[in-house]
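Final report, closing paragraph on structural work. Over the funding period we assembled a curated collection of sequence-structure pairs, and we close with a single example.
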Amino acid sequence: MGRLQCFVKLFFFSFQIFLGQESNYNELKAEFNTIKYLSKTNSFIRQLKIDTTSINYKHVSPKAVLKDSTRVKTELKNEVQDFYSKVRSNLKKKYLGEVEGEIYRRRDSLNDLTLEIIQSRIKQLNKYVSDKPLNASNVSHYIDFSLSEIAEIHDILSRDNTFAWPNCTEDSQLEIVDLGYDNPNGELLQQSSILYVTGGQVELKLQTEKCLKIKSVTLISTYFQGNKKELSNNTGFYDEIEQQWIVDPFRYEDSYTTINEEQHEISAKIILPNYKDGRSFDVEIEISNNTSSFKKIYEFTISCVKDVVLQNSPFAKPILSLSELYLKNKIITGIYGMFGDDGRMTTASGKTVYNPDYKNIYFNIDNGIIQFRLKAKVDLPTCDPVILINMDMKLLPLPVGFEIETDTSVDFDAPLWCDIISLSLADNIMGLFESKIKKAMKEEVEDIISKSIEDNNFFIASIFIDEISSYNHELNFLFINAFNQLKIDVPYNTKRLNDAFKWGVAFSPNQNIGLIPGGRTEIEYTHDSETQFVIGPFGIFNWNNDVPIPNPWILTNSNIYVYHKQRDYARKALQGVRRMTPDLILQNTGIGRTIMNSNYEGIIHTLPKILKTPDSDLQSRIVFGNNDHLYINVAEQGNGNWELSIILIPFDINL
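Its predicted structure, as stored:
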């Protein structure tokens, strides 16, 4: 009985699956039947000559549907979607493309008001044709509506002379109300006549008399051949030779919205490629009337950036990050400086500490705490105990600058008979190391901070440290003051530095600028073994030219090589990368340094820094590049970008 019940349940379960799959299959089959019917009765679809016989579903048995339902349904679904794609593509490329091609050919002869009316209709129809979801129940209406709209546009073109812009009279004041700028596709920050935008779009809105219109939009930059480009005003055209829709990445769209009988609102939307490296373009928009007796040119600059952080944003406080690897290398270098080539250091009481264990130095940044561990030996008359120096350091903000809070201990590893002598040395050795390490750490970090700001007056007056934290093995210094910030991508190995006006970021005259590089890159190469780690702007050094500890092999005047064991131990504890000599303007700069060139002075390097643009009537353009040329092997060279934060410091702050 139990077996019979199981069999019955299994039968009903299988039958339910079959019914569900067959139902789903039948829905697709019904839609496919509608498409086949339309392909015979609808004249538009019939001329497409779409093959709807590739799947002969009548020969697919219910058993086959159950056995291979996924394949059958997928084939039917793909056939249906392919049909809709061909309908949409044909409407857009052939019919709309023909209208837009005719408008483009007649652009100089068409009446201005005709152009305004047609371009508005085409814009709406393009959106409908591209975005309307299609199915078997609405595809006929979709086709009929689109074709009727296209027919009306053709009719408007044929009646071109019946449309006209109103003439401006002599007593017309031709007042233009500047409604400002907008970015319909992202963020925008205006600094004087410079617009920093994300997403590559800017929209200028004006309120004018109806007799005024946009005559031309021109971009001026050495980026273009001939140093300028007059933008086209169309959504593209269908290239019969290439068999594809061609859209100019540099173009503009204009629209006119009636306010009353005398006035309308003009919108000029400038569309650029979505650059993120800050490159800038000067813009000229000419507004004129139909008799050319009046014209006005609007001039401004667009700079395409990766991100805009406005001053009222919760992320507007600048952050300076120091990587764990950078600080660890600095500490190892400092320890080597304390012990020297002979690996010995004498305490204030005359005792000798020697043989620091560089190989097992522990350095870690976590939860805002810098953890440091070092082993060494102490030279005593009766025994040489091993000492372990443990330091936990926390950086705390002060009203100006910061202080280091240190928790230090010293442990001993020695025979029992040596402990009594060792204990008497504990306080002395602990105090020595705490004082020296604490002083070295504070000086190193303060030096880094001061280099990042570079101007003590500005640092004291304006930027105070609000919070010091750690994340992902980095120390992060969050400043109190919030500023408008830009973020751009700075490419590796760039050769763009020759032309600041072609690639550079635009800045207003007399502008204070703070520059803090960021970004992270994973590599898998160290001095003596392959290990994966991360470098940042304050990352690891270059083994080729800036190793912080000297070579252990020294050639003497007697042409004899002398080996320094302590140097070798210390160097092996460091982490760095090989860097090939780049074929760039600025040679032999270290890992993680951003270099830049501007139109007002020579090449500057070693960021972060604060600078001020000249007080003149001209904009400044600064192009940024990264001189790194990392390599693991020939095939894998350094690539990607740094992310550079550009802090726009208010004009009223005097550096």
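The CA atoms of residues 525 and 632 lie 6 Å apart. The two ends are 94 Å apart (CA to CA). We thank the funder for supporting this effort.
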